[in-house]
Design a protein that fits this description.
By secondary structure, this protein is mainly beta. It is 5% helix and 34% strand. It has one helix at 116-123, and strands at 15-21, 26-35, 38-45, 51-53, 55-58, 98-100, 106-111, 130-134, 151-156, 158-159.
């Protein structure tokens, strides 16, 4: 009897966030996934302004429109200063910038330099966490926010 190939089951994401724009319209989905090289953030976004934008993990799982200030500051359990280029170390929530195309879409995967347990423990504390897209790119050094401008999209993380 011949063996029939069986498709491998896709792994469920570790966490998922439905992302909203400031007008409360949908902006896409963010997912934390486990890959062969560790944890990665997958973003499938639409309806955003073209250009470079900062993406950060924020301390509270609350996304109140239109300004999303309810999401708090950057996720920072180690008490570091802001910026991937800061010699004092970066916030856990400091992620690479993304580029949104002229069509308003961004479909990117960002590898994250954190152990899965460390990241999930920080994100799923008593008040949760959010993913936030900012109006401008992060300069990777200015404390506390990287001069990234206002918050234009936000999603509350839910366990996958």
């Amino acid at each position: 009897m011949a063996k029939v190939p069986v498709a491998k089951k896709a792994l469920a994401p570790l966490a998922v966030a439905a992302v909203l724009k400031g007008d409360a319209g949908p902006a896409g989905v963010a997912s934390l996934v486990k890959g062969k090289d560790g944890v990665a953030l997958k973003l499938a976004l639409t309806g955003l302004p073209a250009g470079a934008h900062a993406v950060h993990l924020h301390t509270r799982g609350v996304c109140e429109v239109p300004a999303f200030t309810s999401a708090g500051g950057h996720l920072n359990p180690a008490g570091h200063q802001h910026g991937r280029d800061n010699p004092m170390g970066a916030h856990m929530g400091d992620l690479p910038n993304i580029t949104v195309g002229a069509d308003g879409k961004a479909d990117v995967t960002l590898p994250l330099p954190f152990a899965e347990a460390e990241l999930l423990n920080a994100m799923f504390d008593k008040d949760g966490a959010a993913v936030v897209v900012h109006a401008a790119p992060d300069d990777y050094k200015s404390d506390p926010t990287g001069n990234a401008g206002g918050r234009i999209a936000c999603g509350v993380w839910m366990r996958g």
